[in-house]
Amino acid sequence: MPRRPPVLPIVIGIVLAVVAGVGAVRAVWVSSTASTATPPARGNERADRSQTRTDLRCDGKPLSAPRELRGIWITTVENIDWPSRPGLPDEQIKAEYLGWLDLAGKRNLNAVFVHVRPSGDALWPSAYAPWSEWITGVRGKAPGFDLMRWMIDETHARGLEFHAWFNPYRGSQPAPSGAGPDINALAPDHPLRKHPEWAVVYPAAGTGGSRLHFNPGIPAAREFVEDSMLEAVKNYDVDGVHFDDFFYQYPVNKQEYPDGPAYAQYGGGMSRADWRRDNVNKLVQEMHDKIRKIKPWVKFGISPFGIWRNDRTDPAGSPTRGLQSYDEIYADTRLWVQREWLDYIVPQLYWNIGFDVADYAKLLPWWVDVVKDTDVQLWIGQADYRVGQSGAWSDAGELDRQLAMNRKYPQVTGSVHFSAKSMRSDALGSVTRYATNFYSTPALPPVMAQLPSDIPPPPKVTVSGTKLTWRGKGTSSAVYQVRGDKAVLLAVRRGGDGEVTVPDAAGTYCVTALDRSWNESTPAR
């Protein structure tokens, strides 16, 4: 069995629900504190743009390609997924990563979300952060090659998107595996050693899970964190910038987050809760705007806790009774969607269908309603790691039913599975089951109309026996085979030029060129 996320014993209210983003068990609990601020009204309904264009044809037959994002999270912190342990030889680090790409190919995925900034560190040579200890085993020590460039090149070579996954404000991991609350235990060049005034310890030293954070309430710290992540956007060919939901720390034993001096200096007359939300809102908006200026084709998305607010607190909330991210971790996820500061959102719906505190079947349509009048795409965070646990998760068909439910809503344009190790372990055969039913063929990522569109001309195609070769100018290429009354997607390749061995020399094949945003050319044969 894969390593399961470690359990934090937080039991408030009636039940614990396992909903981890980076190997944590997050409590679902009854919360009664809240204000009732209402985000701005939505605009008009937007048409769904995720589907294949119906006017594209191969030998008179319409192209048929699923348009959905299919991804896995590859977690580096505490070596949950990769590498299997710190300090491996470079060649073994590479071999293990290629194994995850092989798994993605086997399951017909089209994206990986790789943890490149777990805790104020980096998986690339950075002017802002030390090398991550989870790679070499030594805080601040680099491997013998440019890991980020190599990962992206290998990922793209297999036709997959590479989403760089960042934790913006985490500064350390809990001891003993991490530095815990001790600044002096950080790498010598860690930014919090240079700027201890930016550091917050939460929960308090001596409390289980105590760690360092960058203070979200200090503007200079926020700007530094943004620049440290944007460095990767500038220097590497990433397809997406991805956050999970660690902004302000999840509450621990009712301990107050120790940001009093920053609030006194920067609060500007707001309540403490509104000020904290405003700090996170600024990070999200500023990252959106800066990414657009640097590389407008790079997608920006966040995977938040699955509950914004409960409807008992706010009529606009979901029919749930769990932790409210708006009130407890100051993440106004609904506002981010309505303001279209994101290109996609991946709520972590890590509960089963019928769970009384947070029912997947009720949360899914709530999130659909949030995104349906915006250009923000809805991808669902799926809890592969829960399969095999007691209760509903002892049923191998739970994820299968969830994916079937997703497909009832055109606004749901993808899923991301937590995590890679759980997909590989295939507990109870659940992955094989849903992959057979829903991921049996390749898929193209959905088009995002808000991103640049530069559709390339059709490629030039030649066929010699079972070898299909093409030359073109696209960022990627898609190969189709005519089968009956449609042309089905056979393969996706990165780059404008390519070749594949086709299954039937007598068959009819076409190739299309796609731009960075997956807009597709007319087919060539």
- Proportion of helical residues: 10-25%
The description of the largest β-sheet is: 8 strands, parallel, barrel
N- and C-termini, Cα separation = 47 Å
Q: Which shape, going by the Cα principal axes?
A: globular
Number of helices: 13
Number of strands: 20
Query: Overall pLDDT, averaged?
Result: 91
Q: Write out the strand line-up for the largest beta sheet, numbering strands in chain order.
A: 5-6-7-10-11-12-13-14
Global Rg: 23 Å
Structural class: alpha/beta
Show unreliable segments.
1-50
Fraction of residues in β-strands: 15-25%
Reconstruct the topology from this structure.
Blueprint: E1 15-16, E2 27-28, E3 57-58, E4 61-64, E5 69-74, H1 90-106, E6 111-117, H2 133-136, H3 147-157, E7 161-166, H4 191-194, E8 199-202, E9 211-214, H5 219-235, E10 240-243, H6 260-266, H7 272-294, E11 299-302, H8 325-328, H9 333-338, E12 344-345, H10 360-371, E13 377-382, H11 398-406, E14 412-417, H12 420-425, H13 430-438, E15 460-464, E16 467-471, E17 476-483, E18 486-494, E19 498-501, E20 509-514
Parallel strand pairs: 4-18, 5-6, 5-14, 6-7, 7-10, 10-11, 11-12, 12-13, 13-14
Antiparallel strand pairs: 1-2, 3-4, 8-9, 15-16, 16-19, 17-18, 17-20
Helix pairs in contact: 5-7, 11-13
Question: What this model shows, in words?
Answer:
Keywords: Signal. Residues 68-390 form the Glycosyl hydrolase-like domain. This is Family 10 glycosylhydrolase. Residues 35-63 are annotated as: Disordered. Pfam families: GHL10. The protein has helices at residues 90-106, 133-136, 147-157, 191-194, 219-235, 260-266, 272-294, 325-328, 333-338, 360-371, 398-406, 420-425, 430-438; strands at 15-16, 27-28, 57-58, 61-64, 69-74, 111-117, 161-166, 199-202, 211-214, 240-243, 299-302, 344-345, 377-382, 412-417, 460-464, 467-471, 476-483, 486-494, 498-501, 509-514. It is built from 13 helices and 20 strands. The model is unreliable at 1-50 (pLDDT under 50). The protein is 25% helix and 18% strand. Strand 13 (377-382), helix 11 (398-406) and strand 14 form a beta-alpha-beta unit. Helix 5 packs parallel to helix 7 and helix 11 (398-406) runs parallel beside helix 13. It has 525 residues and is α/β, with parallel strands linked by helices. The protein is globular. The strands form five sheets. It has an eight-stranded parallel β-barrel with strand order 5-6-7-10-11-12-13-14, surrounded by six helices. Strands 3-4-18-17-20 form a five-stranded mixed β-sheet, with no helix packed on it.
